[in-house]
User: Which sequence fits this backbone?
């Protein structure tokens, strides 16, 4: 797919998403401070189905406004009592939710009625009359500490913010570093990223989450990508600098990959720590619960 068409698709998606935001201040911040990067541009270049559009933001003000807006909406969609909160510490914005943040499995019509009934009391802002997009199409369906997943293939990342070059310091594979900026409708296609995409070869450039990166390679290999041993060595070296026996470090590293299964592992570890405050994750213990959750030999 060519540059002109990719820009057109990304701008259309962004305009629809912005039109769904009912709070005028949040909408204005997103319009001028958002960028789309990651796998969606790769999929467009390769003419493959898009899993989601990954949004990042230029400043903490926008990240915090977005996090608070969708946390409030998420509460409205979940009468069961899930109550996410937003914590800000320095430059870090974090969503704190008491348990897995999956919205209720009701029909769109049921959810629509609940949202409309609660709009006034929630102070979610006014809806654009001429928006042409139903806001329910971009409802929050999953919240984690680092990101907000909306329906209609949008993911809002709150873990990092900054200019594109700052965002990509935290990326693992170079092919995901193309980006589109909402403030000037510019699409940047980086030569190294394009070379990686054309060859379908993974090139690791470093990440804050190397464990996540190792696990992520599985999905690329299934799609016909390749990776050489040297790239695994890079990831393993970064992993060696982590203390994975610390449950907090392990949880941070597993955020975003096969969440349902890995969060079960974290839950097991936390429950063990409740009865043994000095407990740290050990290899035998990890093997035992991994085999229990993922399946393994009976005598493992």
Assistant:
């Amino acid at each position: 797919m060519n540059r002109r068409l990719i820009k057109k698709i990304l701008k259309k998606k962004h305009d629809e998403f912005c039109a769904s935001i009912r709070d005028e201040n949040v909408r204005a911040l997103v319009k001028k401070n958002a960028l789309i990067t990651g796998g969606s541009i790769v999929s467009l270049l390769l003419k493959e189905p898009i899993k989601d559009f990954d949004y990042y933001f230029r400043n903490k003000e926008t990240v915090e406004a977005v996090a608070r807006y969708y946390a409030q909406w998420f509460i409205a969609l979940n009468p069961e009592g899930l109550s996410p909160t937003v914590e800000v510490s320095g430059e870090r914005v974090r969503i704190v939710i008491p348990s897995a943040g999956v919205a209720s499995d009701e029909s769109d019509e049921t959810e629509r009625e609940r949202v409309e009934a609660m709009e006034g009391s929630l102070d979610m802002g006014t809806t654009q009359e001429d928006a042409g997009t139903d806001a329910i199409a971009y409802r929050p369906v999953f919240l984690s500490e680092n990101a907000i997943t909306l329906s209609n293939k949008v993911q809002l990342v709150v873990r990092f913010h900054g200019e594109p070059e700052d965002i990509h310091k935290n990326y693992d594979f170079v092919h995901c570093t193309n980006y589109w900026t909402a403030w000037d409708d510019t699409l940047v296609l980086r030569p190294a990223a394009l070379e990686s995409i054309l060859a379908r070869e993974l090139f690791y450039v470093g990440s804050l989450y190397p464990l996540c990166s190792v696990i992520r390679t599985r999905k690329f290999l299934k799609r016909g990508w390749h990776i050489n041993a040297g790239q695994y060595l890079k990831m393993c070296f970064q992993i060696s600098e982590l203390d994975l026996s610390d449950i907090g470090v392990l949880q941070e590293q597993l955020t975003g990959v096969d969440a349902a299964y890995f969060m079960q592992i974290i839950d097991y570890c936390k429950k063990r720590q409740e009865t043994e405050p000095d407990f740290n994750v050990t290899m035998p213990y990890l093997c035992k619960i991994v085999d229990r959750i993922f399946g393994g030999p009976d005598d493992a």
The radius of gyration is 20 Å. The first strand starts at residue 34 and ends at 37. Residues 268 and 289 are 8 Å apart (CA to CA). The chain has two domains: 3-192, 200-294.
